[in-house]
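pasting for the record
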Amino acid sequence: MKVKTAEFVISNTRVDMCPKPLLPEYAFIGRSNVGKSSLINSLCNNKKLAKTSSTPGKTQLINHFIINDEWYLVDLPGYGFTKTPVAMKEKWMNFTRNYLRHRENLMCVFVLLDSRHNLLKADDEFMEWLGENGIPFVMVFTKMDKLDPRDVEGNIKAYQEKMSEKWSFLPQHFLTSSEKKTGNEELLAFIEETSKGFTPVNE
């Protein structure tokens, strides 16, 4: 798949205000400062599509983008550490989880993970919550260009060993670099293949 068009549609905090569930949808989420906006922009060949910042916590709404007029990409608020007041972070997570539980056309969640670190508590707890709620997801390791390939391989192996303690089957994973566009083709191919199983939700 090639991304030919990527356009902003709407931002909100309510599932009932999201676009009608007539197209397959893929959500991107991760800890603050994991490189989510950079990956989205790289994937869509548009440096200004999602807001990027050196200050974590800039994404504060459910942001819908329509890609090729065929599917929705959803940019969700990050979780984990930010300099945002606790009450505000809880508000973000509440409407984010409500969206993830109830969005009928959501095909998969892309959980972004910093390849430079081992499995962190915030990531572990969030993926466990997705599993408990039966929400399909894959792991997307970011910033792999910042490490030696052997170190990336070692960190991913550590992830898999740690997750194997709780998970019977490990989620599929992808390796990405926004700067080098590594992994973009694989992610888009996954979306294209997964979308073949989509059935529009009846109104």
